[in-house]
Amino acid sequence: MPKNKLGIIGSGQLGSLLCQAAKKLKIKTVVISDDKNGPAQNNADIFIYSNYDNKEKINEFINNVDIVTYEFENIPVEILQQIDKRVKVLPKPDINQVIQNRKLEKEFINNLGIETTNWAYVKSAEDIKQNTNLLPGILKTNTLGYDGHGQFVLNSLKDVKNEWRFSNEYILEKKVKLKKEISVIMTRFLNGDNYIYEPIENVHKNQILDHSKIPANISSEIFQKAQNSAKLIAQKLNYVGTMCVEFFIDHNDNILVNEIAPRVHNSGHLTINAFNVSQFENHIRAVCGLEKVEIKKIANAEMKNILGKEIQKFRAKVFEKGHFFFDYEKKIIKEKRKMGHITILKN
Ligand code: ADP
Ligand code: MG
């Protein structure tokens, strides 16, 4: 039986776009979030503002839904597991446990025989000194990173101070001389069927996605390798829903997995306008147990993120045909905050 009351944990733009897609499918959405200003409340049928450890509110959430998903991976796994005992959470909480931890994530990927950047788990300045082959490198918090938060570039040992006392776990990753970044978004259904979108080419500025486009300007070999890796990852995780794999391509055309997102992804926003079924609709179809429909590309496209104050300019603009502006309707404008995006279809 398809589920028609979907609970979503998190109320950012991804949650908001999921709610919009759900509406189209006549699925009711209940969003729970600890951000009282979260924009998804504008599109949810019910919005519950609460900390994630508030038992009463979590109960209210559970009682109103028949399936649960999430829009971000940094939710305490115990909370997902508790909810999962009463109402199914998809993607499964144990998937999230692996992916929200960079060390476990990279071990999982490497064990599949898929390459990542070279990396080491580090807990002290001394550990970094044992891994000078990884310099210049990037020190990343092992958990809770997003949009480059919790990342520090280490060009040489001079940047490493002996007195450093690590309050967090980190991984140190070799810095890759990037030729290109791409991502592969796919949706896997309960019965193992999947739909895989063509690779998307991404350009980051200050570690934040700036713009994305299809088609990606890559060889057919890299196209295939990227899709095969994503499929293998999804299959081994027994994944249900939409997920994204981010890849680095270096100057020798090596393709390395950067990270997995167990959710819909910013680089897939262009699927809303460029395909008959977006990554959001596909996610809902998969987790709610709806049928998989045939997916067709409508047009090539480019998506640009709109950060901070830039949004004001767009709010005042009139758009031509084929230009689709999305305002996340966030109440507070902050520097570097993702406020909206624009997708331009190309022929
Ligand atoms: P987040 O979890 O914040 O998305 P990522 O690890 O994906 O963090 O890093 C964000 C961006 O920073 C990447 O998309 C890439 O542009 C750059 N970056 C991260 N790690 C490396 C690396 N090892 N070498 C080169 N660039 C990197
Ligand atoms: Mg990333």
Bound molecules: adenosine-5'-diphosphate, magnesium ion
Helix content: 25-40%
Task: Work out the helix count.
Answer: 10
How far from one another are the termini? Answer: 40 Å
- SSE pattern: EHEEHEHHHEHEEEEEEEHEEHHEHEE
Structural class by secondary-structure content = alpha+beta
Would you tell me the overall average pLDDT? Answer: 95
From the alpha-carbon coordinates, what is the Rg to the nearest angstrom?
Answer: 20 Å
For the largest beta-sheet, the strand count, sense and barrel status come to: 9 strands, antiparallel
Strand percentage lies at: 25-35%
| Overall number of strands | 17
Show unreliable segments.
Answer: none
Gross geometry = globular
Structure, described:
The protein has 347 residues and is α+β, with helices and mostly antiparallel strands. Helix content is 26%, strand content 30%. The chain is built from 10 helices and 17 strands. Strands 9, 10, 11, 12, 13, 14, 15, 16 and 17 form a 9-stranded antiparallel beta sheet that branches. A 4-stranded parallel beta sheet has the order 3-2-1-4, with helices on both faces. A 4-stranded antiparallel beta sheet has the order 5-8-6-7. Residues 246, 259 line the site of magnesium ion. Adenosine-5'-diphosphate binds at residues 117, 138, 145-148, 173, 175-176, 178, 181, 204, 207, 246, 258-259.
